[in-house]
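Tutorial, part two.
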Amino acid sequence: MTPGSQLLDALEHGGIAAAMRDSMWLYPVVETVHIVGFIILVGAVIMFDLRVLGLSRRVPVRMLAAHLLPWGAAALILIVPAGLLMFSSDAGNLVGNRAFVLKLLLLMLAGTNAAAFHMGAFRSVAQWDLGVTAPVSARLHAGTSLLLWIGIVTCGRMIAYV
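Running the prediction step on this input gives:
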């Protein structure tokens, strides 16, 4: 048994994982928290990306970012612990689930895309904040973000079916 598989085995056979599997209500409640968090995060991301792509040009990009970023961060407080709890209940099987693995890969790509956007195109946002078309690089990041998040949500839903 490899150290990684030992860790997964220990996680899956721990008390929290057992409670997640054995309680009639715990897993569904945790899953609901996870989904609500995703609704908030993905909703915020989609609204921002659509603005960068040119919708609602009367809304300043910086103001929208300042409003939505705290919502996205708060959503992560729901998503990450809930996701870890759900993972613990079936860790061994999930690491072999193609939809789950693809979801994690897409999450990493979405995070990388967001970081690249903020370190790049967003630095010049004052020039395209209001009433001006965002530069091509910003629109490419926004379009990529939309596609990645659609993929993440799709993979999350498909985990149960593959």
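The chain has a mean pLDDT of 95. In part three we will examine how such features are distributed along the chain.
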